Structures
1.
Amino acid sequence: LKLASEEKIRLGDALIKLGVLSEDKITWALGVQFELSYVDLDEEMVDWEFVMTLPVARLRELQCLPLARVGASVYAVVADPTVEGRMEAIGELFPKQQVVLQLASPLEIASLLSKAGAKRGLNSSRAHLERLIEALEDPDARDLRDRVRKIVLGEV
């Protein structure tokens, strides 16, 4: 309590800082307090197509990872439901849908959201390459093909 008071941090953060409890244990305890189940996340639990339709940067801010959308419900995990305004902001991401929340480790959520950002980057790069290939297949794109070949071969 002394550390929490002196540094003006929450008790759970103080216990983590002192090494008394892990972040996972604190999150589990929050689950008990708020009657939310704790989920040990796995990459296979995530509907990546669904996540890719959402603003990943905003999800990072909220420490929230949607897992799936089933009918009118969205199933998601959140790191800490006690942060003021977080639950309302999550609800705003999914208007007219029931959000079913569970808790998960902040580190696991952050790791999977990083993978979502990487997947989004790969999808974007793939789309650009597909458009480039289409352009190169155009019979009138001879000059473009020559320029691309020179760039790829380092002749420019």
2.
Amino acid sequence: MGLTLWPRTRAGGKAENRRDHRHFCDFKLSLLDGSRRSVPRPAFLTDMSRSGLGLRTDLPFSVGDKLGVQLALAGGRRIDASCTVRWTRSEGFLNSYGLEFEGLARRDRAGIASLLEPAPEVDRVGLFLQAGASIVLVLVFADLMAGSDAVRSSVVGALPYVLIFGGCLAGLWASFRS
């Protein structure tokens, strides 16, 4: 993920509490000035959420300052967002800032959400094994039902117990997976 910041305007403002869960991270950032030229100053992304991000740098910002943020998404897509400094805290040589995104389009919000919560991967091996076991079970059941009347009546009589036992096993399996 690439991230660049550049100052927009300075304004007075009031601190605001966090609304979304923060995902903690530690990325070095590229800072840009108002002309979008590189500023050789240390800057770090400390956390990020759907509504904003945490920044640590030695540059002086005040509550209410407006900053531009550029996020690089997968596929080469970039988001240029405006942020407002909502809180500041001095931490030795560096200062920490809480920035809130402003005026993001729905597509940009979805892009930020995809950065924070990537789509879950499909367990292809597990899915293949489950499908194979289901097919074997259907074939065994069909073979038993094609047998003699005595075997068929035994299978039909045992079916409710097999289903209850299978349901219990499936419930245990699901509880251990989560």
3.
Amino acid sequence: MGFFEACFAPRKRYVPTWSIGHRRDGVVSMMPRTKIYLFICVLAISYGFVNRWSDRPVHQAPGVLAKAEPMQTLIDRAAPLEKNGDTIKPLARYEITARALSKECYRWDRGDNLAPVDLAVGWGPMADSDVLDKKKISQGNR
């Protein structure tokens, strides 16, 4: 008997006849449980692969991708917003065309209920691949 057969061969064990969901003769196969564990492992690995693949870096050709400066205009009177029990008072309207340089997801810090994703963005020279190849972008201590 090889390694594979030893690991995945159906094993028989005695189970009392009064157990719910087992055969009347008291013998139950371990194979369905092994298949469930294998399915859960494949599902977890697939989820991790898809999650990692969707966050892969996108390489752009050299040149400035976002030339315009961001535009910020003050808001005189805006209604406060409610989110997760917190009140947010808008102070300005912000319009931007920028290149996303880095992304950090927060799940366990104090502000994660308001802003779970933190983006580092760049425009002008910081949107040029030639400039970014010489820089290291990092995020932390928000």
4.
Amino acid sequence: MTASAAGQGWCGSAMLKILAVDDADREEVLRWLEEAEREQALRALQGPPPRIDDLDEADNWSDAFYELALELGPRDDARLGAAMSAPTHALGIETWFTQTSWRPARHEPVDNPMEVIRERANHVHAVVQVPIVGAIVCGLLAIREDHDDRTDWLILYLPGGALVRTHRLIAELFMGLESYGPHLA
């Protein structure tokens, strides 16, 4: 079946359903179909959507973050280093990156993420494979508290900007659909 035949098949079945409803409902369905066609044409004019696995795509890092925060205990470089290696191995991350420029966004690979966190910044970024979603950007953040107990924290996160463009169900589960609905395809 060709693409046009497949399209005609869908349109034909949609038209049969439209014919089976009363006049008021038929008008509403036709308005909905016209709006869907306009939205599809606009998306085609805008080009491909931003890739959720592109570290340098600024929109990926917008909105809220879906986080897993781990309190590691009193400040300890060895424990923090071991904790940082856990997601690297468990998630199959081959390379961590550090952001070297904000506008435009640019990332460069790092050999030792612990060194980056300790000396230059507290975030490193990577691309991970997430079930259902596929390849998506993620971040790892270390917080080294300086007050009385000097606690270390490690936070693995998926940025909301990338999550909301994956799938309507994913956005609803992770981020709350009502506030992100307009961004979804």
